Fold each of these.
Amino acid sequence: MVVAQAVHQLRHSWSCPAEARNVSHVASLGAAHSRVGPLEKTRRSREGLKVRFGARAAVNVDSPNALPIKKRPVAQAKRNQYDITTFTAWLVRQEIEGAIDGELTIVLSSIALACKQIASLVQRAGISNLTGLQGVENIQGEEQKKLDVISNEVFSNCLRSNGRTGIIASEEEDVPVAVEESYSGNYIVVFDPLDGSANIDAAVSTGPIFGIYASDQECLTNLGGDPSVAQNCVVNVCQPGSNLLAAGYCMYSSSVVLVLSIGDGLCAFSLDSLYGEFVLTHEKIQVSTNTKKLYSFNEGRYELWDDKVKRYVDTLKVPDGWTMLYGGIYGYPRDANSSNSKLRLLYECAPMSFLIEQAGGNSSDGQPRILHIQPEEVHQRCPLYFGSPEEVDKVLSFLA
């Protein structure tokens, strides 16, 4: 009973004055002395003095008869609604931690600026008469949309003006271009300025995809029509995806989202129109391991696919009570009209494969890992399968 009373006093010791605690202890110990023998009185008296003077160890809290001590809750710092992490602040933090250098910070900042400028153009495309065809074809023989051409100019100008980009290679350009305005850094940036631009007129999601490589050798020279310069640029650009330093994409949809990896996980930033800045909204994104819930294949080309691909996609269509929400696989296989598919290795497949692997997923062209493929030309195409590891392994088993 004495121990229980002592513990009870300790439970309230955070709010009771010291004098009140002492009086309470003396009263309780005095009452106890009147009911026990001399030896027990002495022992309990000593225990009481220990408790009285703050020796908490005297109370055996492990005893089954002891009451639990109620710990004082630790106050948690409340997150202010205005406590946000902007893309700029995030980049500075990465630089301080040594994840990137100051020159790469500048390159990524210029890409974010290009994404915001293009987002504004896309949102006003219908109003500003920016829908429809430009009337010219790119190097792949594809008719360019008006926004293809404009987005390419915006992206290229932002990269040229930052002074840290050595070579830029665009899906819309014939060959990579050495940047005369570069002062240091010499980073190689490959990009599709507006992936999915065919959907612009229907207001469906679009956005740029980009990847950043380090330069193997300097590519700073006056162009002057020297063919060796163009060849040097091609050699620098044709690197496997495993050499990527960073990659990302920006999606223009119900919101503008910038997804980025610098080789240490995957983050997403949403454009806040109030601040005009990308704000960190997701960290350490991971691909769902719950497979067989979502697949994305252009089934309009089903009859052109290889029989192995058809059989795999047919297995995804079997009713199985799927919720069709998260996880699964994306695929763009080769077909009878496109022996190497339609996606570009440098501008689309490698950057997206880099991102999916940073999120714990897998990617393949049906045989090797995408990031291991050595490009032989800047506009090389290849099939692409990426998503949950289990589902990618499954499609590879069908293709074997």
Note: Residues 290-399 form a domain with the D-Maltodextrin-Binding Protein; domain 2 fold (CATH 3.40.190.80).
Amino acid sequence: MYVEEAVAQQIVDQIGFGKFNLRAILVGALCSLDTAFSMISLGFVISVAACDFQMNTIEKGRLNAAPMLGMVIGSTMWGYVADLKGRKPALLASVALQVLSDFSAAVIPSYTVFVTLKVFSGIGFAGQLSAVYPFVGEFQPTKCRHQVLSCMELFWSFGIIGVSLLAWLIIPMKIEIHALGVVIGSWNVFVMLSTLPGVFAFLWLLTMPDTPKYLAESGKREEMLRVLSRMYVENTGNTAQQFREQLAFSPSLSISQLVSKSEVSTGVPTDGNNLAKSDQSKLGELLNNSGKQMKALLTRPHNKRIAATSIIIFCMSSTYYSLMTWFPELFQRFAAFEQAFPNESANICGVSNKLTNQSSNFQSMPDPYGCDTELATSVYVDNVVLGASCIPFAIIVPLTVHYVGYRFYLLLTASVSCAVTFGFFFVVNSTQNLILSCIFEAFTSLCTTIVFCILVDLFPTTLR
């Protein structure tokens, strides 16, 4: 007996919102913090690790692009993992991959290895982005889903603020630890500590089940009912027996028939009643159906939806993640320029050219790799302001999205983001750069979050 996802959603709606839903939201919060720490920490590393890795601007660019390459590789892979093994295993694997890659990168003193590990980190990053919104959203009642998913932006903002404060605390320290032939400096310790949200996310995920809608689509009827029973008990404080009775007398025929054929139990499932597919049969079916799923995405009504969302995600992500990892370096260059040339102004390209053209070539500069240059305090402050700029919209959107809808915010944020990106060409000082960076961060990150929220609504479980 395979249960339609609509039946699982009906039961979730009947259970309502409560403690269990908050536990699921905490998963989303920790994953959002983890992805923010992983991505934004790279921006600080690009500036402060230039001495250890002897990086020029081109090599910094390669390091910046490494996680983006990983995201491209992982974007499709994690979809299959989530369909084959479930939302929870996909999240666990992606979080573990990202945390292990980032931690390893912090202790291996090699530029090539660091770049390679950041590619793997990007693969894990993509897995969290692709799985966390369905994971959190599929536990929520329909009436609360929009508001809950919109709140994910708030935790991303806290992540930007948190990692900037952590960088401000750790990087200026004079740390030099010698162990196993490796020298651990302050930036290495900073990268290690930046993996802590991922560790907490992994541990918290271990306490959570998979989503009822995924279990329904996978034919795991007994496990789905146990998860729903657990949700009911935690949310209402009533017993599993009361839940079974409530389902049995439900006015919905599909729900009453479901419970009449199963016994809700919190114990170990009986093999005779568990009609879930084996991993081998699921893999074969998944491979056989992948073509059908792709065909479904390319036919009405999904073809226009997938085209529109793909274009939006590509346009927003290509600028957003690239600029976010470059912001600390840009802030540092503006600070250095204004200190060296206090009465001059220049755009972003002009600042870089002015700083590097003081000498005939890069190698002949007094401090080409920044070994004797500390990160300016304004860099940390500007990044904290950058994260704080997102908070007002991250609060307003969940409170108003039910009334104005996703489309309004999508059009608003995409339009403003496009205009601000174009405006960077006309920036001539650090204050203008910070103002536009804050507007860019607030609207672009919100636009990206809204697109991920829309994906949960637009596509059925089997196509997400």
Note: Strands lie at 176-179, 182-185.
Amino acid sequence: MAAPPLGRLVLTHVLVALFGMGSWAAINGIWVELPVVVKDLPEGWSLPSYLSVLVALGNLGLLVVTLWRRLAPGRGERAPIQVVQALSVVGMALLAPLWPHVAAVAGQEHSVAFLALSFVLALACCASNVTFLPFLSRLPPYFLRSFFLGQGLSALLPCVLALVQGVGRLECPPTPTNGTPGPPIDFPERFPASTFFGVLSALLVVSAAAFQGLLVLLPSPPSVPTGGPGPALQVGAPGVEEEEEASPLQESPSKAAGTTRSPEPAAHRLLSTRGVCLLGLLAVTNALTNGVLPAVQSYSCLPYGRPAYHLAVVLGSAANPLACFLAMGVLCRSLAGLGSLSLLGMLFGAYLMALAVLSPCPPLVGTSAGVVLVVVSWVLCLGVFSYVKVASSSLLHGGGQQSLLAAGVAIQVGSLLGAVAMFPPTSIYHVFRSGKDCVDPCGP
């Protein structure tokens, strides 16, 4: 006997969120665990630069997915998604015991296992945006917000786990009479990196199991035409949300009432001014949140102290799922409104970039007001951009599978361009300068 409509609706929302949680959990987890692994790996603090390059190379996953679509047209997203999830689970499970292993390359020791498995995980994460999102065209638009909520959890949960682990805990010794402070006292982590990666492997297994649960709830084949709602869409109250968001990509939404979408009109809607602007918003916001701003987060926060940095990271990650909750209740469908929100987010981003440029002596350093301003700016910046991403993707849902595929490509291309743009100033020209723990570079 089928589950009650409300129970089926809630279960589908939960499964979609858990499914989205597995999209970037692996790479996000590696990033937050870097302060632990750099202590034992030969690359030291040059490891983040290696990881940035590997994540950029992970965009080869886009080419692999494109090749799959050419060689197996109409086969749907099930097989690519299962391959992506298998790579994530196996890669993270192998990373747990193998990450400290090093090998000699060209006469120098390198963390070959860590770098190779990080590249495999980067391939899987980059491919997830262009496989997971098109699969969601089989569901009504409001489930897309649950998916992005899960993506927010893929950043938040590793951060919380790292805080529980005690990453980056240190204490500054008292300043002696001669005025020369001693080295900071580092506290050991509560559990090793292998345990951290093992927990992430379990989260990825849960995400893969959630996808299998969705396949059970949505028995229709993935090759169902993307324009019309098949039986798999009837997971909630029919005719309510679907009618409300029938064709948000059209210039005149009222014309969509009572019409059956077909692939050709969907393509026209995607290439309309509204569709192109929504894709542009997705590319720009992801370039900022996944490429530009993360590259300067430590420079903008650490001058105010490690507590400010950890608060900015954790609360900023929490702003993503909170923005998804907000989009579930209040969805902005106005292109002008989304553009205004993007400009607001850019204002916060400009302030944070200015703090990074002025590091290690930004304004209000050493004051409570400076800490509050930098943390609140990070939370509001990431929250506003997260809302714009969710709203834009929800509106693109009206164009069917091809629109969601284009959304995934825009997200990934924007992220890549943002990361590439920040590589020269951070790793080559060293525009940004960082301070030292327990040393006040701004004193008299």
Note: The beta strands are 103-105, 108-110, 170-171, 185-186.
Amino acid sequence: MQVNIDFFADNGIKWKYYIVKAGDEMFAEERRGKILEILHEAQRVLVKELAEQFHVSIDSIRRDLSIMEEQGLLKKTHGGAIPVSAVRKPVVPSAVRIKDGPSHITAISKTAVSYIQEHDTIFLSGTNLHFHMIKYLPQHMPITVVTNSVKIAEQLRESENTDVYLIGGQVNKTGMISDIIANEMVKQFTIDLCFMTAGAISLQGVSTATPEEASFSRAVLEVSRRRFILASHENMEHDAFSKIGPLNSFHLLITDEGTPKELRDQIEKQGLEVTVAKGSYPVAVPDYS
């Protein structure tokens, strides 16, 4: 294998050296160093692409990534790897709103609402998806909404045919309530349909930003008959700080067409049904400014 190396001499002239490695592939340690460089620049690497780039087997790349993960250099994901920093990266605050409703967010929201039946008691929190969902809640039939979001409760309080129950406790700066008081209060309800969202979903499970949010989410799941998780492709193949539970804690995942089919198949093998919202190909980029 020929490797090109450029450098500049003291007189400013650019020189190029050509080094031919013994054998047909780079040494494993050198290859891992190069993988780390690529990961730093691209923020994600795929096993298949790396195998093609370095002319080695997929198993060799998988071994590289496993060793690098053990060394704390990266975090393996389905089909590749991400930087370690992405694992502890804070999830976008719930107060942040996606402007103008991207098509895939709208599609997920409408698909979720289509499962609501007359007289259902549903749970909504206060994330971007939940705010999009309330635009499409049925107005023609009576439903009950249980929420831990002051802002969601305020939006729905004058809606006809909708009874609203606000979970009590300490209100944080985003208008959400997820402390120990909220955990106890939600146990007083029976919820027909829980629409949960999360900061991250991977084959390792569903996770969110803080232990408090994770604990409250688990309390809601315990009192819910049907448990849905809503997630756009941006939240897939990541792990946030606090785990809510394994994939099979939920009955249905509603996502968009940006989530790879291979990943969807792997999720279903773990016992979680997956529905792709129609017309949800992500053509717009979220604006968090």
Note: Residues 1-85 form a domain with the Arc Repressor Mutant, subunit A fold (CATH 1.10.10.10).
